[in-house]
């Protein structure tokens, strides 16, 4: 990943649509990217009114799958909107991260697929650069989903 990589290519590599991606830093152990999106009208989750009014921003650090054998971090400039209709503030949702998590959906899937390898929880955690607690949580969640599938119950 050098200066010849276009930011659209970086977005494709990271599996992120409609975002501007720039390399933040590269060192021996990690690669970091800065991500931001354009302002677009969004529906208020409280009243469904459309708004483009930005209340504020914050930077969220998100872990992604290792890249070139290095830890990968995304620094997402999250936007919080203000609804002029009901006065509520809400964050834009991003399809590549689940609400309240600091890891990409892609990293969760990558960890889940690691269970098919002959690795233990600590090895998977080390490989993904996450805690063993995170890996255990994903394993328990997958076991729960498998149980629901076996019992033919709908997902909660």
What does this structure look like?
The protein has helices spanning 7-14, 105-114, 121-128, 132-151; strands at 20-26, 30-36, 42-43, 50-51, 54-67, 70-82, 89-91. With 156 residues, the protein is α+β, with helices and mostly antiparallel strands. 18% of the residues are buried. The model has no long low-confidence stretch (mean pLDDT 87). Strands 1, 2, 5, 6 and 7 form a 5-stranded mixed sheet that branches. Strands 3-4 form a two-stranded antiparallel ribbon. Helix 3 (121-128) packs across helix 4 (132-151).
List the helices and strands and how they pair.
Layout: H1 7-14, E1 20-26, E2 30-36, E3 42-43, E4 50-51, E5 54-67, E6 70-82, E7 89-91, H2 105-114, H3 121-128, H4 132-151
Helix pairs in contact: 3-4
Following the backbone from N to C, one meets helices and strands in this order, namely HEEEEEEEHHH
Low-confidence stretches: none
Mean pLDDT: 87
Most strands sheet: 5 strands, mixed
